Amino acid sequence: MTDAELVRSTLDGDARAFTELVDRHAPACLRYATRMLGDRADAEDAAQEAFLRAHRALASYDRHLSFRTWLFAILINRCRTAMARRARRERKVVTDTDAISLSFVADGSEALELRNEIEWALAALSAEQREAFLLHHVEGLGYDEMAEATGAGVSALKMRVKRASERLKVLLEEGAKVDDRP
Questions:
Q1: Percent residues over pLDDT 70 in the chain
Q2: Of 71, 96, 121, which closes a domain?
Q3: Which of 26-30, 133-137, 173-177 has the lowest mean pLDDT?
Q4: Are residues 10 and 84 in the same domain?
Q5: Could you give the angle at the alpha carbon of 96 between the alpha carbons of 175 and 101, nearest 5°?
Q6: What is the enclosing helix (H) or strand (E) of 160?
Q7: Are residues 84 and 25 both part of a single domain?
Q8: Considering its fold, how many domains does the chain have in total?
């Protein structure tokens, strides 16, 4: 069944249809939220809240949008809210520089090291750049879909993706130079 058919079935009272929508879209939502928020537990909360809100608002779903785009618009807002909440909490807490520094798990695995470097570099981007980069390059949304989901203009999104890509390249190259020192 297509997403539109599953939405229709859900609205007709078939709870299994919404479960199918969740099963279909949960991995992408969780992947995006984890990379956006940098914390698996926060990401799970944001994804769950997005699905709950989607279920409650399903009757207002605009069938001109893909369900995925509509769901990502909700998820993006949940992630933005979580980041704002975290920023308010962090402003209230006095932290020392040791708490801010990143720690890498050293198990000899180059793949794990590379993944940590990429996650670190993504976290160093502004929220807008990280959001645009992840939606485009990781989740595969086109710029028109991204614009519908985020409310930003296509040209602004293209610029965010471009700047994010350039910044990631610099961060990862700098990280490699640091690792190459004797």
A1: 81
A2: 96
A3: 173-177
A4: yes
A5: 15
A6: helix 154-179
A7: yes
A8: 2
The per-residue pLDDT for range 71-101, each reduced to its tens digit, is 999 999 999 999 888 776 655 443 333 333 3
Which tokens go with 25?
């879209």
Give the span between the Cα atoms of 21 and 148, in whole angstroms: 20
Asked if residue 132 lies in contact with residue 146, where contact means CB atoms within 8 angstroms, the answer is yes
**Containing structural domain, residue 48:** 1-96
Q: Using DSSP, how many helices (H) and how many strands (E) does the chain show?
A: 9, 0
What is the pTM for the complete model shown?
Answer: 0.69
Give whole-number Cα distances, 151 to 83, 128, 147, in Å: 18, 12, 5
Structure tokens at 47: 């994804």
Q: Buried (b) or exposed (e) across 147-158, using 16+ Cβ within 10 A?
A: bbbbebeeeebe
Rg of the chain on CA atoms, in Å: 19
Supply the pLDDT for residue 182: 42
Pair 114, 137 in one domain: yes
Residue 181, classed as helix, strand or coil, is coil
